[in-house]
Design brief:
Layout lengths: L1 E4 L3 H12 L5 E4 L10 H4 L9 E4 L2 E4 L1 H12 L9 H32 L7 H22 L12 H6 L6 H4 L7 H11 L2 H4 L5
Parallel strand pairs: 1-2
Antiparallel strand pairs: 1-3, 3-4
């Protein structure tokens, strides 16, 4: 299997799961800073020109959530559960894409990525709107985690890898995690997982 990645939040998801499962992947780094994602050779893997992507024989996958589930199923791991928790995982996948990562990602973009690539100062209005929206949905997750150790219950699943992707640099991104004790506890638990803390190949 070949796993195409870069050191981004979505790249973190797939790489962390691959490391966590000891998946037998060949790591292929696609340097976004050099626009390698636009090369014809990579577009043949993922015509969207985005990472991560996975090739396993005749199987070509893109979208980090699909890749995580595929790797877990191939490894026989219940971090992609086959029981009633599966519906919960799908629920949190969709919620994360629509809400949580959407606004956390906006804060990462404004407060970290723009400066890294010399794209100017953060847009104050965009930061204010993203912070407001993040807080709205963080309250939902915080309340859920008050009675659940992980997103889909008491066991780690791919939903946790998905939801946590933008949080490792939450202080630099000015994501107000400290305002939500249950999210902060859950995030700290995730950071104890070696593959999550250090997801990318050396």
């Amino acid at each position: 299997m070949k796993l195409y990645y870069f050191e981004t939040p979505n790249g973190r998801k797939a790489c962390a799961v691959a490391k966590h499962l000891n998946s037998p992947v060949e790591w292929v780094r696609i340097n976004l800073a050099n626009a390698e994602q636009k090369a014809d050779s990579f577009l043949a893997v993922n015509p969207n020109g985005r990472i991560p992507a996975l090739v396993d024989g005749d199987v070509k996958l893109w979208e980090s959530q699909a890749i995580m589930c595929y790797l877990a199923r191939k490894a026989g791991s219940d971090i992609w559960p086959s029981d009633e928790r599966q519906v919960g995982v799908i629920t949190w996948f969709n919620w994360d894409t629509a809400h949580f990562s959407r606004y956390a990602g906006s804060l990462v973009w404004e407060n970290v990525i723009k400066g890294f690539f010399g794209l100017g100062d953060p847009d104050a209005a965009a930061v204010a709107q993203a912070t407001k929206s993040f807080n709205q949905f963080a309250r939902v997750l915080d309340a859920h985690l008050a009675t659940n150790k992980f997103a889909a219950g008491d066991k780690l699943t791919v939903a946790d890898f998905s939801l946590g992707a933008f949080l490792p640099n939450y202080e630099a991104a000015k994501i107000p995690v400290d305002d939500y004790p249950n999210i902060k506890r859950w995030h700290e638990d995730l950071m104890e997982i070696p593959a999550w803390k250090d997801p990318f190949p050396a």
